[in-house]
Amino acid sequence: MAHSNEMGAPLDFKGLWQYDAAPEDKSQVKIAPRYNHFINGKFVEPDSGEYFDTISPSTEEKLSEIALANENDVDKAVKAARKAQKDWAKLPGKERGKYLFRIARLMQERARAFSVIESMDGGKPIRESRDVDVPLAAAHFFYYAGWADKLEYAYPGKKASPKGVAGQIIPWNFPLLMAAWKLAPALATGNTVVLKPAETTPLTSMFLAELIRDAGIPDGVVNIVNGMGATGAALVNHPDINKIAFTGSTPVGKFIQKALAGRDVSYTLELGGKAANIIFEDAPIDQAVEGIINGIFFNQGHVCCAGSRLFVQESVANEVMRKLKYRIDTLVVGDPLDKNTDIGAINSKKQLDKINELIQAGIDEGGQVYKANVSTPDKGFWCAPTLFTEVSQAHRIVNEEIFGPVLTIQTFRTPDEAIKKANNTAFGLSGGVWTDKGAKIFNVTSQLRAGVIWANTYNKFDPTSPFGGYKESGMGREGGLHGLTPYVNLD
Amino acid sequence: MRIPVLKTYKIYIGGEFPRTESGRYYELKNKKGDLIANLCLSSRKDLRNAIVAARGVQHKWAGKTAYNKGQILYRIAEMLEGRKAQFVDELIQLGYSAKDAELEVLESVDRLIYYAGWSDKYTQLFSTVNPVAGPYFNFSKPEPTGVVVAQAPNNAPLSGLVSQIAPIIVGGNTCVVIADELSGTVAVSFAEVLHSSDVPGGVVNILTGKTEEILPHASKHMDVNAVWFTDLSKELAVSVETDAALNVKRIVNTNYKKWTKEDAQSPYLIQEFQEIKTTWHPIGM
Amino acid sequence: MDFRNTPRIDQVAVEEKVARFGTRSIKKESKMQALKLALSMIDHTTLEGMDSEGRVEQLCHKAMQPIVGQPDIPTVAAICVYPLFVKKAKSVLKDSGIKVASVATAFPSGHALLQYKLDETKFCVDQGADEIDMVISRGRFHQGDYNYVFDEIAAVKEACGSAHLKVILETGELGTLDQVRRASDIAIAAGGDFIKTSTGKVNPAATLPVTLVMLEAIRDHYDKTGIMVGMKPAGGIRDTKTALKYLVMVKETLGSAWLNPDWFRFGASSLTNDLLMQIMKQKTGVYQSLDYFSQD
Asked: Which of B114, B121, B145, B275 has the highest number of chain A CBs within 10 A, making it the mutation to test binding with A?
């Protein structure tokens, strides 16, 4: 037995036993060479005749091509939604609910195909698409299906009626899940929808269109058009919509808010974040470290509520740092379809460039950078897990949303200092608190100005749990009882 | 013959009654054209000072117990009831009939009591415990949005003002209210009621002047969380909503034909200025 | 030493972390490597009231030759028996390289005088035991007499001489993961060479969450002192699938230095044949039957 008084040499996680590749079978999944718009229950060719490619960010190979919607296509979709809305709203709630239950069930039946496509098109690890995105998407439909005939219990003293036609614009980080977050409450409350997926991740939405057709949802209730920013703008500017629901960046959210100024269109915005994750010295440290990892590296850090600003009480900073480094060295970065992959591909070249620009900015501003000792494939877009120390609230990487696997680490001495710095941001989406002391949890969680606070956990989601931001992180809630409100008028 | 003592109407910022820093004023006249009073024509600097005052006390105000906030709202109602005659007089000066003036005051008192009662209840109404599929205790509850700027309506000098202030502050927000030009005397007198009724300075700030001069600066202000406007011109509404996007302000555009009627009161108006916070915690040993 | 304030453990997060280890997919060559590794880490165990010399002799033969005609398949690390059978086991195993471990200190309850425990330990060592698996005094632990527990372990360690000491915490009787962590810290600080979850006589025996907490205690001690301590989950690990989850956990918590029988053991009996069946399945591509594997 080797006894010594020295501190242990760093642990080695790269020894003889390494996992062999364990790729998910994709032979069952058939991706068509081309997808058209889904309007009025049918797949229709684009007015412009134009298509754009969707590629796999992990291989850079073209997966399919997608119809590009111009104003005419958007108009067609809105008209179809308008035409369908009256009958959909008139349908008894319990029948609308049954349609939603059908969607949920079909999604469970096709779960594996959805998760494989999600990972191929978006780059996220199959472990996450299989265990998080797809099951949660189905659960969301199950949850709101049950509300369809119970709305009278949701608003004491008021009568809820649908807004009408909802335009919904969703991001590329959780493509299917965000479609579910948007569609389920809108449909349950009697609205019809025009959905625009993000241009880098259209495929699961097109599989969802097929599912919706197969579920027998009446024509025009759900319409899906694809395209870039101009398509989204056409939807926002369309004169015959009643509601816009948007999830994406804060700059685009502000653009939408401006575009809707003076119009009788209600809107909900789920925007960016720069969440603080606060570790007190009395926290369960090993679990907190796992929470930090989960907080920032889940989905390559492409998460609006990512715990991207870590605050560690100075007395435990060395221990936390050592353990963080151990942990990121054990993360498996690579093929999203490999069941052992923890961190997949960055969603697009554009996003990778942005992440790299901000990492460089952090280095230029004097931050100390630590990159995980991991290998990444040659093709595709990759970013190793990255830690920054010796940074402050004054640094650009501490203020701007990076939307990548990059964590900034600061220390603090007192709870007041941690809370002040945590709230020192334009955003207010989420936050994390780690301490074993109950009274402190209630104090700190109530002082953090953010819509979702995880205490002694991080990045948990559930259909029953409202999600949404304070300040520049947006307005309105998705999920739970509160998630119905954006889609109803109360009289 | 006794010469009556005339009152100087000033604005209300941070629990004090300063004159506008600009030194400007406007003449409030009755329908016959007689001068009722000179009122402050508040400037954007007055607005800035009011927002600083509102921000400064917001955290503390929100931290008071619901019971305490309810008591304070009730106290405002008591003070207003006691000064009923003064408000009736001021409303008559503005052209109200004695009967309408009395209704306007009494309904305003009742409105305060209505919201005083909500103080320790709306949280129960709008909160949920969410049965998540995992070993977590998860709950959602409302928290104040922060600092709210309200444009008072032009059709209800007192009841409009009160019906805006009460749901905003009972929810733990602080506010800056831009009084309607023609309601300036009533608004300032109401500030005096607030001042004598345990409302901490800065929780409510009242400016008199021109909405079109002041509100655009409020909608651009980066330390304002929400704007409630009632009867803006289309053009001004568009510009206010556009500027609100600078920091993603919440916009509420709600007006009533008759602010004294019961449909102008609702817990859902409190909710307009609340953010829902969801908290997760594991359930383990 | 003050063991009142030991690191806090969040049970829910531990269970989630463990579930995540369970999603690792071990295929192809990495699987064969893991199967052989797991086999080589087994303390092949019999701890029954009805144990006899005959039974122990059979156990030793199984340990030396887990399967006939497969020379590339490793033997187990050790056999684990009651003190009275150490001599017999040594005589059968001879210079096979397989260690003999003996439980001691009034196993499994530990309710005995310290002197009795020390005498029993010395007896085992005299009989030739290479390793001593002691139990801690859980009653005294729950009474808060942490220093008593510490002193007792230290005394047994001294009685062991050159034999390795494994300290059984009997985690199924500790109640919470916080207590598991506290007991681990006490056992490590008192000089245990290994910490071990269970006697196998209490339910639950070894679990993944408990083992993770113990591995983290070992890691913290290593980080502070540079001293390595071994880990032995025992009881309830019956199949290959579960054993591989343990290996993944060791690999990703402590790293490759602990992935050998010197630093990690499984206390098990039926696991041996399950691993052998999996190894033969990997070799032949055919699902196996227990009829073809010696059951000793």
From this structure: B275
